[in-house]
Amino acid sequence: MALQLTVDGERWRAHLRRLAEGLPGLVPVAKGNGYGFGLGRLARKAQWLCDQGLGAEALAVGTYEELPEVADRYAGDLLVLTPWRSFADPGTLAAKHTHRVVHTVGRLDDLDHLLDVHPGARLVLERLTSMRRHGLSADDLRTAIRRVSEHPHARLEGVAAHLPINQGAHLAEVERVLEEAGPGISQVWVSHLTGDELTALSAAHPELRVRPRIGTDLWLGDRGALAVTSTVLDVHPVAKGEAFGYRGRSAVKDGYLVVVSGGTAHGIGLESPMSGSGLRDRAATVARGGLDAVGRVRSPFWVGGEQRLFAEPPHMQASMLFLPAGTAVPAVGDTVDARVRYTATTFDRVELT
Ligand SMILES: *Cc1c(COP(=O)(O)O)cnc(C)c1O
């Protein structure tokens, strides 16, 4: 009775290996919902890549709170992508793991504070990029490098640049950061460079260790290895005009209500406009393909080869779909396909074959 992610293990692992082989220095990213797989599973897979000599000598997590979930399943360095702050909380991370943590620092104040509380900290200095999310200015980067190099115990692990997805000028931006950082920088941690850009960067700086941080293209790069299914929990015929659902709405035509597993608790339907159905919400949803031509809301569930409409807004753990009369109706216990955003979906089960 589950919203399930089924992974063709052999095909998935082949993709992970192939990608890692082509990207020396790969740093897998495991954050959030673990891209649908879960953080623990990704940590074990990163270890598996590392054991084969396929990079993954560091694993990146998003937050300090995520560290305890990966630390016992993966033995290499642990880079935290969210810049350190005085209120950063490594949760229940055991003391034996702290030497593996590599902090990201994006403000001078934080640098001073971090080195006060953890004088031997390993850290990466993040440069503010065209993303404009976190990071130091050029001047502050130079200052930070000087402060770290003058510090008796701090360990500088390089500079980092987090770049927008799908833009052309990445290489120039990384080159500029390297120039600002000056000589003596041994590593650069980058996000969202293409394979060609990474190759060019390494070729231009043979002494530099390039560390591409990759999540989506690694874990979700071969969608053919993944299948999402939901279970049919119930089927009820309805006649035009008959009431159903939480709000007692009535069927606009004869058909079937099909109740499938997967609701808001799984992340299903959260992009739909149904809680606030102002015109702007509706327009935005139409733009994303969420409504059909007459404004009914499409679900992510596919039955009989067609994307089906929600009969009403998804419930917490199940969704009611409407199938018009004359459609082949699935039986209770059948599975139906679902197309979901992996990074926003919590699956009941992940089945790795
Ligand atoms: C999430 C994240 C990544 C990984 O992004 P993908 O698009 O999933 O590859 C890389 N770098 C940083 C700083 C991130 O926050």
Describe the fold and architecture.
With 353 residues, the chain is of the alpha/beta class. It has nine helices and 18 strands. It has helices at 9-22, 39-51, 67-71, 108-117, 138-150, 170-181, 195-204, 216-219, 279-287; strands at residues 4-7, 27-28, 58-61, 77-80, 101-105, 122-126, 155-162, 187-191, 209-214, 226-238, 243-244, 249-250, 255-261, 298-303, 306-310, 318-324, 335-338, 349-352. It has an eight-stranded parallel β-sheet with strand order 2-9-8-7-6-5-4-3. It has a six-stranded antiparallel beta barrel with strand order 10-13-16-15-14-17. Helix 6 (170-181) packs parallel to helix 7 (195-204). The longest helix is centred in the first third of the chain and has 14 residues, at 9-22. Mean pLDDT is 92; it is low at 272-277. Pyridoxal-5'-phosphate binds at residues 29, 31, 81, 162, 191, 213-217. Residues 29, 31, 81, 162, 191, 213-217 line the site of pyridoxal-5'-phosphate.
Keywords for this entry:
353 residues, 6-stranded antiparallel β-barrel, alpha/beta, 26% strand, single chain, 8-stranded parallel β-sheet, 9 helices, binds pyridoxal-5'-phosphate
- Which series of helices and strands comes N to C? EHEHEHEEHEHEHEHEHEEEEHEEEEE
Structural class: alpha/beta
Secondary structure: helix percent: 25-40%
User: What amount of the residues lies in strands?
Assistant: 25-35%
Strand order of the largest sheet: 2-9-8-7-6-5-4-3
Poorly predicted ranges: 272-277
Largest sheet data = 8 strands, parallel
Number of E-state strands: 18
Multimeric status of the protein: single chain
End-to-end Cα distance: 19 Å
Rg (C-alpha, Å): 24 Å
| Each distinct ligand | pyridoxal-5'-phosphate
